[in-house]
Amino acid sequence: MKQEHVLIVSDDTEFAHSVMGRWQSERNVPEFTLTSASSFHAAPTADFDLAITGLLHGPEITAILDTLSHGPAPVIGVVADGASLVKLRGQHPGMLGLCQYDGWVELLVLLGREALRRSEAQSRARRAESEAREARRQATLGRYMLEMRHSLSNALTSVLGHSELLLLEPGALSAPLRDQVDTIHHMALRIHEVLQRFSSLDTELKFAEKKSQGETFCPASLAAEPR
After folding, report:
1. I need a labelling partner for 82 at 20 to 30 A (CA). Which of 32, 101, 166, 199 fits?
2. 3-state secondary structure of 50
3. CA 82 to CA 100: how far, in whole Å?
């Protein structure tokens, strides 16, 4: 299982220590990356599952919050008071906001855990959708190949027939041309084997599906056998 990664952006080292210290008591402790506002854009912060900003100051704060809020990972912004919280939500409605009141660390870790669970659930959903799209694409390709196998078989029969007729006349072709026709005949036979495998595989899959349906079928009521 991939270890979760939390990015903490704060100019207050005590803020980061409080968050990490509290999170250590949890069952699953993520990996942390710490950076200040001034070094945010220079830090290797591309891969993270949750970002936490705390008590930022200076002109960099707007650019940092814009960058984080437009990223794929959830963001929790911790501010000093209610007025700052209202401003944060107004400028970045997609972010989670939290005031640094009594018990804020407990609430922050709770929000962080839930945000990570939601992020992981969304990632699984995206992977499932991608796998489903790939399965549909392969199913469409498979159906097309099965539908076209008769046309291919007819064309292949013509190639095999003409090549065999040419090979039956030993004096009609020079040695190099005869070798080329023999190669065409040999490759056509290999293609024929592949088409035969398509047909047999289709039959096997249908049989397996029918057998599976029969094994899972359970009548609504069964008469008890007399003893």
Report:
1. 32
2. strand
3. 9
Cα(172)–Cα(186) distance, integer angstroms: 19
Q: What is the pLDDT of residues 202-226, one digit of tens each?
A: 777 777 777 777 665 555 444 444 4
How far is it, in rounded angstroms, from Cα 225 to Cα 217? 20
* Separation between Cα atoms, residue 140 and residue 42, nearest integer Å: 47
- The rounded distance, in Å, linking the Cα atoms of 133 and 56 is 43
83, with CB counted inside 10 A (0-12, 13-18, 19+), is exposed
CB 100 within 8 A of CB 55: yes
DSSP state of 173: S
CATH classification of the domain holding 90: 3.40.50.2300
List the structure tokens of 195. Answer: 């088409």
Q: Determine the Cα–Cα distance for residues 72 and 118; give it in Å rounded to an integer.
A: 12
C-alpha pair distances (Å), 47 with each of 6, 14, 43, 50, 60: 9, 24, 11, 9, 21
Q: Which of 58, 77, 101 is the last residue of a domain?
A: 101
Instruction: Answer whether 56's CB lies under 8 Å from 39's CB.
Output: no
**pLDDT tens digits for 179-196?**
898 899 899 888 888 888
Distance in angstroms (rounded) separating the CA atoms of residues 5 and 133:
29
Which residues are 134's β-sheet partners? none
pTM score: 0.59
185 belongs to a structural domain: yes
